[in-house]
């Protein structure tokens, strides 16, 4: 894996994490217990920070980045990902905040200042515009994203199960690492 410092700030990775050797993790990036980062993920915590909560998984080809502090935006926009979050293949998460138990469908884009509350499904290819808030308990799809309907009970249950599935998978991968 490629862990790189930026201005002498190194990523902080829990010992129980799996980081694929082709992923690039730079700067102030924190990965909690049981996080998995899959092939070709780029996470750049250079001009702000990235925090990934326990049991979350970031799938192949996803880009994680932040927005710098400025006069017009004194806090900038860090990237905060809660616990039990599944981020599908080839997503773009930029300076947004995701709660817990979220599924971000493949190819989705979530932009600066957007907030995704707990227990949300975001459909593949969706675009969450800057500063948009997605309310807990719903399915969202489209470009720009729109609230479609409340989550079914089976979908809500799947949000946690997806995280469990990826913890099992990352544990299998960790057994292969020599």
From TrEMBL:
This is Gamma carbonic anhydrase family protein. It comes from Paraglaciecola hydrolytica. Pfam families: Hexapep_2. SUPFAM superfamilies: Trimeric LpxA-like enzymes. CDD domains: LbH_gamma_CA_like. It comes from the Bacteria. InterPro entries: Hexapep, LbH_gamma_CA-like, Transf_Hexapept/Carb_Anhydrase, Trimer_LpxA-like_sf.
